[in-house]
Here is the input.
Amino acid sequence: MIDLPNLFKKGPEVSGIQWFDAVDSSVHDDYWVTVDCNAEDGVSASENLKKAYQSRKQQPQSDRIIVTYEVLKPKFFILSGTEKDVNDNLIWYSKGIIREGRNYELFIRYMPKYKALFDSILPKIAASFH
Here is the structure.
């Protein structure tokens, strides 16, 4: 379902969210990836996808989070932006898909000093998430 470069290792699953941590523990808090299955009983996958999109998009109600890119299609969405952190502005990317009648969301967050790295690997990660 997702092909991550060897920078990541499978971490814990918490409340249905699969975490992927940095292999290098010295950068553990600098970047991370999660994959979540967003499913609500009695709601279609397309409605769940729209709800996940709206939920992620509405988080920017605070001045800490800014959406800089957004796309919503019948079977996927993409949102990205920045988040003001205590020490830095973080960059984030979210992709939601419908797969086998269920809605899944990929979420990646990283520090700006890794922008060049993620600019090179994010297209491959996002394309593998289907």
The mean pLDDT is 85. The beta strands are 8-14, 17-22, 31-38, 65-73, 76-84, 89-99, 102-110. The two ends are 6 Å apart (CA to CA).
